Amino acid sequence: MAVTASQTLPQITINTLREMKTRGEKFACLTAYDASLAQVVDTAGVEVILVGDSLGMVVQGHNSTLPVTMDDMVYHSACVSRGCHQSLLMTDMPFMSYTTVEQALHNAARLMQEGGAHMVKLEGGAVQVEVVRQLVARGIPVCAHLGLQPQSVHKLGGYRVQGRETHVAQKMQEDAYALQAAGADMLLLECVPATLAEEITKTMDIPVIGIGAGPACDAQVLVLYDMLDITHGKRPKFSRNFMQGNASLQGAIEAYVRAVKSGSFPAAEHTFN
Ligand code: KIV
Description:
By secondary structure, the protein is of the alpha/beta class.
C-alpha cells in the first residue's frame, strides 16, 4: 500500500480531545507499529494512535514489554508517523527510560524529534510527578498511565486488575490528581474496576482513556492485534474481536470507532468489578 500524505482533514490535538471530553463525546485510540497499518487506523477515524511498548509482545514476540529499548520505540514511532496524518500520535516511553528528569527529557525529545510523536506516555503515579512537571514545562504533552502498569509486571506478580482494595483505589485516585496537577494532559487507566475508573474520570478535567476500565472513561484503547484477532494465545477479557462480521481491516476498525463512540464497547463482559 502506498503511504502518501493527505493533509486535508484537521489534525487532532490535545485541545480537540479536551473539547470532546467537555462535550461528553467519546474518542477512540488504537495501537499501531508501522506506517501501513497506521494509515488504515488514521483513515478509519481513530483520534489517537498509540505506539505502545506492547510492540515488545505483539511484534517482537517477548513475554513482557521490558526488553523494549528507546531505539525500538524511536524506530516504530517514526514508521507510524509516516502513515499518521490526522490522528494524534502518542508514543510510549519504554522501561527505565525516564528514571530521572534529565533522562526523561532526553528520551522524550528523541521520541518527538526522531519519532514524530505528538505526546509521550509513561507509567507510574506520585513517583513520576516531577518528571511530568518538567516534561510539560518544556512543551512536551504527557499521558500518565495508572492501574495495571505492564513495566512493573514482576513487582505486581502478574497481569492483574488493580484497585480492588480500598487503599490501592485511594492511592490511585491521589496519584491521578497529583499527575493532573503536575500538568499531565491525559490519563490512561488499565485493568481497573469500572466504578473506580468512573469516579476518576468524572472528577478529572483531563481526558481519561480506559483499557479494561469500563464504559465510563472518556475514551477507549485496545491493542490493534487483539481486536483484529491475530494475538497469539487467549484474547484478553477486555478486548473484542472486531473482525467478526467485518470483511476488511478498515471495516473492523471503523466498527470499533462506532462502538466506542456509541458506548456499546466495552460491554459488561469486557469490564472488571
Ligand atoms: O503498550 C501499550 O500498547 C499500552 C496499551 C496496553 C494501553 O500501553
